[in-house]
Structures are given as C-alpha cells and as structure tokens.
C-alpha cells in the first residue's frame, strides 16, 4: 500500500512537472543531470533505530516462510518478548505468510536477496520500521563440513533462518527441541540487527569474541557464536533458549534500548 501511494505521488509529481513545462516555455533547457538510483531506506537503518523510538515508534515484523517451515508460536513469542523488553516501541505488529518452495537445496546470499526483493511487501517509512525474516527450506550455501550456519543477519533489517538445517539439528536424541533451537537462532540474529556484539552498538566493556566475528565472549550468552551454528551442542542447557547476559544488555541500554 505504501509503495502504491509513493508510486502515485511520483506519478503526480511527474505529471505536475510536465504540465509546468507546457505552460512556460524554456528556450535553453539545462542538460539533465543523470538521476542517481534511489537508495532503499532499509540500507540506512542503524541499530539505534530499532532500540530507541527517536525515529521509529512502530515496528512491523514481516515473516515469510516456505511451506512447512512456519516459525513455531514459541519462536514468535520469544521474539516478541525480546522486542518488548529491549526496544522502545509504542506498537509492534507481526505478520507471517507462506510461499511455495523455489526448489533450492542451498541458499546463497544472492538468493536470499532475490527472495527478499520478490516477497518483501513492507518497507520502512515515516514512523514505522520493518524487519524482514525469511525462513528457507534449505541450507546456507556457504556451510563448511564441520560448521553449519543456522541463521544469518545479512542486512540492516534482514534475517534468514535455514529451516532445514535447524530441523536437522533439533528434535532428536540429545538435541534441543525445534522450538527452542529456532527461538534461539531467531533471537540471536535479531540481536545482530540490534548491533551486537560491537556490530553498530558500541561496547561499554570489551566482550567481543573477535575470532568469531561479532559475538560475545560469555559462553552462556545468547550472542555466543555457537548459538547460530551446528556447534551449539554442549555449549548450552537446551530446555530454554539462552538469554542475553549483562555486558550485552548494558550495550543495548547504552545505545537507546531498555
Ligand atoms: Zn551470530
Ligand atoms: Zn553477551
């Protein structure tokens, strides 16, 4: 809807400009400057935009999943609880819809971006920030044999979960339930969008496990690197998803969060 209104406005402006030209003759038109392609607003979103309500008071969570991979209610509940306890937002809406499988076993970053381009219907505007969550029915194409990625935060407002990989590593003997593992990965990726760790939200004290990128050095923390990989076994007690620990919590608060 927002896109339609924008398109309409653009058309209205174009028509206006055209009418203007017919009314006033301009003998020496200036050579037109080449138009810069419009940068999507999503690319300029910062972690503080999620945490504070300075720019955005509303949040839309748009989930698109491939048939058979709808996130569990437990996962949605945990995500909404995290949003409620850490983000200053007056309103939060969550939408989930299914799409048909594109028939890929492996999803590259490029494929994820193509899926987002094709199916994302909400864009950030005015007071409303939108987060895009895609659940793939396959694995990440960049997986290594001994380390499978369960989820990815690949843009300022974009998250992918690899539903098939999550199912492979949950629900069995000595494995967490699918709901617990999926909740963990979903919250972990969302916290990357919140700028953890040292990923757009500055650290108050150094707790970055730099050998594993933007992750927390606290092995019990939700932002410990193993929470999003197949190496999680043995790292966590898996009856419930791990929570954020003090140093991560302080960083969020310091960057505009609760
Ligand atoms: Zn991570
Ligand atoms: Zn932490």
TrEMBL record:
Region Disordered, residue ranges: 23-42
Bias type Acidic residues, positions: 30-41
Entry's Gene Ontology molecular function annotations: metallopeptidase activity
Recorded superkingdom: Bacteria
Signal peptide (from-to): none
Protein name: Membrane metalloprotease
């Amino acid at each position: 809807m927002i896109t339609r209104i924008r398109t309409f406005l653009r058309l209205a402006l174009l028509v206006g400009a055209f009418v203007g030209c017919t009314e006033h003759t301009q003998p020496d038109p200036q050579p037109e400057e080449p138009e810069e392609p419009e940068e999507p607003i999503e690319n300029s979103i910062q972690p503080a935009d999620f945490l504070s309500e300075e720019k955005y008071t509303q949040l839309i969570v748009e989930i698109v999943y491939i048939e058979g991979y709808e996130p569990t209610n437990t996962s949605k509940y945990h995500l909404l609880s995290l949003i409620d306890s850490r983000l200053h937002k007056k309103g939060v809406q969550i939408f989930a819809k299914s799409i048909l499988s594109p028939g890929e076993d492996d999803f590259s970053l490029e494929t994820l971006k193509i899926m987002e381009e094709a199916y994302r219907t909400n864009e950030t505007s005015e007071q409303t920030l939108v987060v895009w969550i895609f659940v793939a029915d396959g694995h990440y194409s960049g997986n290594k044999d001994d380390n499978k990625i369960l989820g990815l935060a690949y843009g300022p407002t974009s998250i992918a979960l690899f539903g098939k990989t999550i199912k492979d590593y949950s629900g069995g003997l000595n494995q967490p339930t699918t709901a617990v593992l999926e909740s963990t990965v979903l919250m972990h990726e969302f916290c990357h969008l919140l700028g953890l760790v040292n990923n757009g939200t500055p650290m108050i004290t150094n707790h970055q496990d730099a050998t594993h990128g933007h992750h927390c050095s606290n092995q019990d923390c939700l932002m410990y690197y193993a929470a999003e990989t197949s190496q999680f076994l043995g790292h966590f007690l898996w009856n419930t998803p791990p929570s954020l620990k003090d140093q991560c919590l302080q960083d969020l608060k310091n960057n505009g969060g609760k």
